From TrEMBL:
Transmembrane portions of the chain: 12-33, 45-69, 75-98, 110-132, 144-163, 175-194, 214-240
UniProt KW keywords: Membrane, Transmembrane, Transmembrane helix
Pfam families reported in the protein's UniProt record: EAL, GGDEF, MHYT
Native species: Amantichitinum ursilacus
Record-annotated GGDEF domain positions: 296-428
Name of the gene encoding the protein in the UniProt record: cph2_5
Name by which UniProt lists this protein: Phytochrome-like protein cph2
CDD domains: EAL, GGDEF
Amino acid sequence: MTLWLPVTWSPPLVVVSVLIAWFASYVALDLARRIGNASALAARWWWLGGSIALGTGIWSMHFVGMAAFSLQIPLGFNLIITLASYAAAVAVSSIALYLSARPHIDRVHFIGGGLCMAAGICSMHYIGMHALQMDPAIAWDWRWVALSALIAFVASLAALRIFVWMRGLPRQRRVLWQMLAALVMGLAIAGMHYSGMAAAHFPLNSICRAADDISASGISITVASATLALLAATLLTSVLDTRRQAETTRLAASLQEANQALTRAAFEDPLTQLGSRLLLEERLRHAVEVVDRNGKRACVLFIDLDGFKPVNDSLGHKLGDEVLRIIAGRIKVTVRKPDTLARVGGDEFVVLMEQVEDRSRPSLLAERLIDAIRAPIRIAQQEVLLSASVGIAVYPDDSAAHRLVANADVAMYYAKQAGKGTFCYYSTDMEAGAARLLDLQRDLRRALANDEFVLHYQPIVAGNHTHHLNAVEALIRWQDPHRGLLMPGVFIAEAERFGLISEIGEWVLDTACRQCAIWREQGMLIPVAVNVSAVQFRSQGLVVLVESIMRRHGLPPHMLTLELTESVAMDDMTHTLMMVTRLRELGVKIAIDDFGTGHSSLAWLRQFMPHELKIDRSFIEDIEDDPSARAIVNAVIQLAHALKIEVVAEGVETIAQRDLLQAQGCESLQGYHFARPFPATELEGYLRSHNPLPAPENGI
């Protein structure tokens, strides 16, 4: 019967070996994920460094496990054979990391990879055992050897399966599952090692011929410490690189999102989510190129809503925007999918049709668009009715490429002149109309530069029998050198369209205040009223502008009244109250112009508390013959008096109108019955003949 040397184990080193196996497995899982997510070049470097770090960890577990084992004789390890064992550990690690980085592991690679890894693990272990150089040779229990090989194969398959499974885990759950998976892998590796050790038997007279080479007991702690440090450094590098890559990915995503937002802002209308003018121009260039290649046509339909402005004024800004969104939705479902739809102005839309073979197709689309827009809109318990005028221009039939939109715009104006709610094709005889619009835009800019605008002043007189002058309203005129004196109805709408209304409004305010200051210096204290456009009133800089103009001309604030239409004042209540509060703090008066045409309420008036209400002329002109108009005017006057608000009646043209308004207690009257608007030079004579009442210097 063969006697064997008794075997003893160091429990602390056994525990350390298992911990190394667990930690090495955890690092392996992290590296597998890292390699799979890295670029091709970075993945190669991670694979190479990871194979060395992971191989060192697996080999260290084996070496520390061997050090935990002792016989009653001195033990050591042959250096060359030990290095071969280490090379086998690195080789099996490289196979594992290579397979884990593959997008998919099929059955052949899965089984083949498991066999290769098991062979490498077994080679590392048994080559390491051979490094003992025992004499006589180690006696093996082949049942335990087979079990260790089976454990190595199963552990390898489990590792590959875990590598693949870990890819799909969400980030929040990854660390916990990675630790549990690493524990399973570590126990499997340790199980293979210690089952292999159990297979070894050492005859009683055995000696270790490598006892003088490497002493396991002397360097085991050093190897374990160095290995743990290497694995920790590898893991830390992986974590830091992952964070760096995540931050880079986050920044790239933020940059992409910002670029997409900028693109949307440039190519999308924020109100309707239709295309913008910039998108239209881009698509138009492409459409022209396609036409030049295949000989078909490109067609532009310019759509303008008829009567939208009074609807917007009546409903207010927010509901007006909702109407535009509804109209945009109707247009969108009416046009063809390949067509480009853009909003190019407040109530203006453009449709670009490409690959048009038959000129009748734009006509059919225009009719469908007009019908779609004509359908009633129910909003805020009201029914809104709109129509549309459509202008059509076709390239290359009747329009040059760079004039397509402009010519369609001209054709749209001809459709409006034809009665609205219809469409019209552009023709070359409309050129004069297109040129007129361009000339008007150029002339308006020239008028601002050359000071061609002038102010006329219409008296606002007392509503009693004296008819003393209370104030004047500044009204703009254009003294065109070629066309003579032009009324605002000729150019104000176009000034708004061309974006010049703010500049013109600033000129009116400055000129009126300067003239009022001149009259004051001459001893005539005549307050002046100035109309403020919607664009001006929505500007945050209006208060600063008013204050600077009054300071520049030395004008007391109570000498200036700013007139807002009821619809502008009601447009954005929060903004209106904020602006009115700031203007009242300056001492400027506020008047509501065209009162009765909007949708203000008693509660709103009490909150807003303007200095004046100006009754719209549409009520005044019917006051003689229409009892309902007379009742409405009387109700407004009584309401204003109850709130201590003064009333101005506009459009007084007859004696009967004057007498009725006086009888109802209207404080101020304005209209052709008293005086038409005059230039400042003529108004001075009027002032002298009507004995103006001095305005109090401390305001009201």
